[in-house]
Write a structure and sequence with these properties.
Protein name: Peptidase
GO molecular function, one term: metallocarboxypeptidase activity
Number of strands: 10
InterPro entries: Peptidase_M14
CATH superfamily: Zn peptidases
Number of helices: 10
Strand order of the largest sheet: 1-2-4-3-5-10-6-9
Family: Belongs to the peptidase M14 family.
CATH class: Alpha Beta
Distance between the termini: 58 Å
Organism: Vibrio superstes NBRC 103154
Structural class: alpha/beta
Helix content: 25-40%
Length: 309
């Protein structure tokens, strides 16, 4: 009874122990509010991206509060002899520095790497999530568990199609994320409630870390990314049990997940080199600008490593 009461208290929608039906999903969706503007904070900044990049609208989400056009950028001077690197941000729309960091990279830094790489950047995969500052899409589906065949999340399906239609092999893929206090305050309790499970409180690491692929960990590249980011912000220490968010720390600031098996964004491209970044925006030791710059440092750390191969 205590755990049921805890869950009922923790999340206000649904019946403890019972999966949500369409009724609860609708109740959840109706409780969301627009908190910021995708058009003003994201699309308008795309005008600042230089002429080295072509902006492509690869789809549109026809949600009632939209429509939300989806944009990607690719190198104009495409060279089939160069490796192609993919950068994705805003798969979880509430993870602000993933979106703003991708835009900052495009604006300030990306052109410096065009001598070595073709670049493809999708700065905000989930604009509805950006506006309501939430992890899910309107159907209470997590886009970052939906990078699978016949995906039920249009956010995931459309960016996969955008990349697939290019018909090129992706050499490296970096997916920009955050781990926030709201993960424990809102999103993990909501997930437990949605799935009819008991919620067990976890911990939030204070600092930056990366998530490599269990099947293809790219250890040296992760080391290079951490070293680059460390010049901008602090790296998350392991918990006393040697883990970060419950996963074993395999080197300073690095854990691994089976990316493709879990339907995570960094796994869909089947790139030779993959990583997911995790910035901690709620830290007393980091500003929003530092979080954005940490994402840029992660991208450049990866590219500098690949350039030197």
């Amino acid at each position: 009874m205590e755990s049921s009461m805890q869950q009922a208290h923790t999340y206000p929608i649904g019946t403890p122990g019972q999966k949500w039906t369409e009724k609860e999903v609708l109740e959840w969706r109706d409780s969301r509010k627009i908190l910021r503007s995708y058009q003003q904070e994201v699309v308008s900044k795309m005008e600042e991206v230089g002429e080295d990049f072509e902006r492509i609208q690869y789809g549109e989400l026809g949600y009632p509060s939209g429509p939300y056009p989806l944009f990607g950028f690719k190198s104009k001077a495409w060279d089939q002899s160069k490796p192609t690197v993919l950068v994705t941000g805003g798969v979880h729309g509430y993870e602000t520095s993933g979106v703003q960091g991708a835009l900052l990279f495009l604006k300030e830094t990306a052109s410096q790497y065009l001598e070595h790489f073709n670049l493809v950047v999708a700065p905000c995969v989930s604009p509805w999530g950006y506006e309501i500052i939430n992890r899910w899409n309107p159907d209470a589906i997590d886009p970052n568990r939906s990078f699978v065949a016949n995906s039920l999340a249009p956010e995931s399906a459309l960016v996969m199609q955008f990349v697939g239609d290019m018909g090129v092999e992706i050499f490296a893929h970096i997916d920009l994320h955050e781990t926030t206090n709201s993960d424990e305050e809102e999103f993990r309790p909501a997930l437990a409630a949605r799935d009819g499970l008991e919620y067990f409180e976890g911990s939030i690491p204070d600092g930056f870390y990366t998530v490599g692929d269990t099947e293809n960990p790219c250890e040296e590249m992760q080391t290079a990314i951490i070293a680059s980011v460390e010049k901008v912000t602090h790296i998350a220490p392991a918990d006393p049990d040697g883990t970060i968010i419950g996963s074993q720390v395999v080197q300073h600031g690095v854990i691994n997940y089976p990316l493709e098996k879990l339907g995570l964004c960094a796994g869909f491209s089947k790139a030779k080199y993959t990583t997911t970044t995790e910035v901690y925006p709620d830290s007393a030791k980091a500003t929003a600008e530092e979080c954005n710059r940490a994402q840029v440092a992660a991208i450049t750390g990866m590219l500098d490593f690949l350039k030197a191969l």
